[in-house]
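Hi again,

Forgot to attach this to my earlier email, sorry! This is the prediction with FE2/S2 (inorganic) cluster bound. I've pasted everything inline since the attachment limit keeps bouncing my files.
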Amino acid sequence: MSSYKIALNFEDGVTRFIECKAGEKVLDAAFRARINLPMDCSDGVCGTCKCRAESGSYDLGDDYIEDALSEDEKSDGFVLTCQMVPQSDCVIAVPASSTVCKTEQNTFAATVANVELHNDAAVVLELDVDTPAPVFLPGQYVNIDVPGSGQHRSYSFSSAPGETKVSFLIKKIPGGVMSTWLESAQPGDSVALTGPFGSFYLRAVQRPLLFLAGGTGLAPFLSMLEVLARANSQQKVHLIYGVTRDLDMVQVDAIDAYVAKLPNFSYATVVADGTSNHARKGWVTQHIPADALNDGDVDVYLCGPPPMVDSVRKHFDDTGVKPNSFHYEKFAPTAAPKAA
Ligand code: FES
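Structure tokens for the complex follow:
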């Protein structure tokens, strides 16, 4: 391989992707891409360029001093970008804003390919994006400009990265800016996307995964499942998809398709409405099987409305469950997602 794809995640949520040639240091690759990562000495002495590598393999280099990067920091995944030479695609969290680093988010021109209403509760929007296909990490979101409104709305991709056809799962909100536009959107209509954004994305898969989706918070998991399937992942993955009402449950066929594509994938659906005839009722926390928690050796990903996120956190606290990692994204119908 002659180059690696490096995702730089800035602290304001902007993500930029750069190509790093084999043997090249990340700081140099970023400079080629006109991104000024924090730096001072460029010699492994000052520690100014310290970032955190969230996934990927790399050589830390031999020419830095302990004051710049301690053994503890090294084992916590910290790196010096002036020394680090990637040996695979990597994700690097940069402790500075994109503005400080003099870069901006990307914009993409797109046209509507298809608008499909599901149960009068949600819309699957497919867009054709101009080449090159947008790059993003599975789970991330973009801002979609709503034509004619001067406003944008944020949605996670439900499709996998690297495709010129992208899709989104959008909750239908009567009177909502996006929902209103979607009622009359036609194939070929132009829209603009900005992004990608967000720190809610699939990390390196090293242990069982528990995915908890609330409503249209299902979208990022469809993207993650596709990425896992393409990687022929053998890891155990359990998804619990909770909705408020029966009619809010959409794209179950899309989820079910992954049972055949991923050998260790399972899922359950849950409806909160007490009058529903669904087999599982209540909250997702009532339907987490003990084996899906794997005695805490599990990475948990949760995307749903704020009360769901809060109740899952409380459930883990109350039951003493301490997952290896817990990544969540709260979304409100009209606000930008907030991730942790
Ligand atoms: Fe000084 Fe990297 S810039 S240690």
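Residues 153 and 334 are 7 Å apart (CA to CA). Residues 107-197 form a domain with the Elongation Factor Tu (Ef-tu); domain 3 fold (CATH 2.40.30.10).

That should be everything now.

G.
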